[in-house]
Amino acid sequence: MTSNTESHLTVRAIVEAALMLALAYVLDNLVPPFYRFPQGGSIDLSMLPILIYCLRWGPKWSLLCCFINGVLQYFLGGGIAISWQSMLLDYVVAYTLVFPCGFAAGKKLGWLWGTLIATPGRWLSLTLSGALLWYMYMPEEFLGIPMVNPWIYSAFFNGVFCLLVLAVDLIALGLMQSVPAVRKQILTKQN
Predict the structure, then answer these.
(1) How far apart are CA 113 and CA 91, in angstroms?
(2) Contact yes or no for 55/98 (Cβ under 8 A)
(3) Which residues lie below 8 Å from residue 176, measured CB to CB, with a gap of 6+?
(4) Which end of the chain, N or C, is surrounded by fewer C-beta atoms within 10 Å?
(5) Which phi and psi angles does 85 have, rounded to 5°?
(6) In this predicted model, what pLDDT tens digit does every residue of 2-16 receive, in sequence order?
């Protein structure tokens, strides 16, 4: 590979990251969500551009894009934090841990496996934040189940949240995957 080609791919990866980050911002802040939880978080398509980027560019570029997404989610998305630890766990770490999706780039059913492996890290970070930092806001019950332990509540609440986001993303990516032109142009691994 010549250095000209490497430079071209680097520029292209950076430009695509900027476009996908901008699209994620639009989907998060300008398009109404499917559902907004009273305790925070919403079910929307804002992760979709980030997942597509990860599936196109692999783990190296995904790590950078996901980290920047986490920072932007907090600073541009009206992030709410009760401390710097909350800002890190709820935004920067949680969104950065979506990057493993990039390991599925170019693999058979990569859109499915990538989305599935992107979710546990985000769930873990959000669960840690909820149990360690947000526990004083824990309701007495959630979905009709009494809540007495902040770890159980946080794991349960964030599990429901992450599974719903996962379902929306899988449906959207599955629909995109089913259209050959979209699959070839949008979901194909770069470089």
Answers:
(1) 23
(2) no
(3) 111, 182, 183, 186, 187
(4) N
(5) -65, -40
(6) 566 888 899 999 999
